[in-house]
Amino acid sequence: MIFWRVALSVVCIALGYGAIANKNFDVHIDKLERVGDTGEYFTYNYTYEKVSDMKFSMGAHVQQLKELDDSYTVKALMTRSELADGSQYEVMMDLEKTLCDWMRTIYKAYFYEELAQVSNFPHYDTCPLPVAEYVVENYVFDTEPYSEMMSEGRWKVEMMLMKEGKVCSGIVMITTVKPKA
């Protein structure tokens, strides 16, 4: 589904923790990994390219193989650690909602309008989500507007589609934020 896009957005929106005004930061995505038994729920074909220090270009074709209803939940876990090796991650956000509630609240408030311009992702009132093919083309995500809110550290975002406590599909992204040299 849209976990990779949501994960990038959630990182940038929440990077205000411990912010120091008027500092500019570089954002580096260290790891972007799909998790769960994705083949049962989705097939993916996506591209991801760093355009500049603060911009990332993305495209995707996602085939959703099963109808998804309120028996599924979306879990978003964000943690942050200091840059020093061995630093422990601190939980910044731990949110879990049923899929339909997620669509009507988080997806509607933070993602739908922007995604509607570059994709055929479903409307926020769509639930259950029918079997479908979703496409996003030439989406450029610019982290520059968030640079004054960012704080340095390692950020780990986990976005998971779950059913009965089991991960169906998801993504883990680890990002390093450092002051510009």
Query: What is the 3D form?
Result: globular
How far is the N terminus from the C terminus? 36 Å
- Number of continuous helical runs: 4
The largest sheet is: 5 strands, antiparallel
Could you name the CATH homologous superfamily? Ganglioside GM2 activator
Number of domains: 1
Order of neighbouring strands in the sheet with most strands: 1-8-7-4-5
* Helix percentage: 10-25%
CATH fold category name: Ganglioside M2 Activator Protein, Chain: A
Name of the CATH class: Mainly Beta
Mean pLDDT: 82
Note the run of SSEs as H and E.
HEHEEEEHHEEE
Estimated share of beta-strand residues: over 45%
State the secondary-structure class.
alpha+beta
InterPro entries: DUF1091
Pfam family, one: DUF1091
Task: Describe the fold and architecture.
The protein is of the alpha+beta class. The chain has one domain: Ganglioside M2 Activator Protein, Chain: A. The chain has helices at residues 3-14, 38-41, 99-110, 112-116, and strands at residues 25-35, 42-52, 55-64, 72-81, 90-98, 132-142, 153-163, 166-179. Strand 7 (153-163) and strand 8 form a beta hairpin. The chain starts with a helix and ends with a strand.
